């Protein structure tokens, strides 16, 4: 059995993933800190190359493993040190490299050029070939003062025997020596190891590496190769041996020889991975209560998940990425997690996401599905005119706000707005109206009078004069006045929308999502419904949901279960009746609603909507982006460049998530595999239809029964107006 002391004394290897750009000053400070350590543990640096690229390893006794990792990550921000590496490939030949005058320094007139030369010599391998450059850092050497009379560095033995020690009289050489001796350093060993198929190839590879090191030589310096047992490179001893043939290397020289990819280069060094996308390790770990968003891709963190709790989701999640990058797959995974957790949720989307959701509904939630599909033969309906304890005036005003948000001030001018307000108020005052009656109210005089007589009598100051004016218009004048409004209301009579919105007493109320944790799925396929009809129905559903959310203000906060709201192509459907969307998002957080807003690119969003998302969607998940959007995303992500976002592969993301109420740093991840299909879609559709749907024939007949009223004539003495003036 291995003792604790023996275990702590074993050599362990960790892999260093350097950030880009890698500041040379920071790496020198790291080496200088190691060189100044009192306890002076042996540290082994390796640049290890295969056909797959170059890796940077650091080896030490196990007892120093954590301290080394901490030093690297703290002294070089952005560096990632992966956990213990096992299975290092072994070289078959090793050479020890010595400098003929180690008292003099190695130099480089172009650090980046020298680094590129060293890394180029290690790159370009094939098959199972291996190249290793190893630097063993042993005892620390403190800065030294030079003696007044410095011996000549290149004096030969014969000269020494004949004339004695000669003084170094070359000022530039003395200056070089002073520079090296005045810096911290190490007693160090440089080794080069290789594995290749034949001796000639091995010799070629070693010569290539040694040649690259010669770019660091100054006049009078030479490199010498010494054969050495390859075991010293493959399995180095854990402690510095007393008789190790070492040479002094300054901190600067170790930095040059290490091959570390320093500099702010635009083109990656040979053998290095692409500069973009940059891996970023998550700053927190997920727990059982977290909804999984992605699996971390940063080295040393690939077993870590990126996630967010339901409570933190109330600060809203913003997803952006074009078609084909995996956005819908991520939404599907999150929706599946919510269904498993028993949460209420709403999904409004225009593509195939809901079809995929139906295929993964857990068995325990199949009776909770409400499929509000306008294409269904027995569609589920909603009635935005249902008072539900509210006053007719409030319901009318809220619905007017939805239309105003949908069509804007340009689409609804002053006259159209006035007509629409009075129509909505008249219908809500009736008590049993549906929204499909709205266009008919303007075109069917008999039905209109049956609706407006009561409100005209009860409100002689506003509604009464308005409806008297309207009823006195000639058919031509009426058509002219209502034409701008009717082209927006006619979609309500489209068969698909009519069958959803003409149900005066639908079997489903959107408040059941909040009170009974129902799962409302609203597929809005523009190719079948038409874009205007799809946007109108989506806006009405979201507007009705917002009213239901607001009603939670009277509920104790601890009793407000989180309801998840997913809006894909959010710009089409988030038409909440208020001028301040930012206030809506801020308010919905306290009322227990978590909005997940998704879209393809930034220019889809109106300016006010984008500002609201930037201010209130505290969690952000961005996929691969086009150049313009990448610049906008990088402006929100310190430490990331636009190229990081444009270079993301499919299903890869950068995510900034809220954790315990605090916005955390960005992290890189890859979305997890979507859940397997486990449900019978036809069965779930039938369950929803049976619980909440109504036959289309019955819906149409109910509407006809109301409209087939006698056409009232003007009362005696009244005259029709011939114009709108």
UniProtKB/TrEMBL annotation:
<dbReference type="InterPro" id="IPR051162">
    <property type="entry name" value="T4SS_component"/>
</dbReference>
<keyword id="KW-0238">DNA-binding</keyword>
<dbReference type="GO" id="GO:0003677">
    <property type="term" value="F:DNA binding"/>
</dbReference>
<dbReference type="InterPro" id="IPR027417">
    <property type="entry name" value="P-loop_NTPase"/>
</dbReference>
<protein>
    <submittedName>
        <fullName>Type IV secretion system DNA-binding domain-containing protein</fullName>
    </submittedName>
</protein>
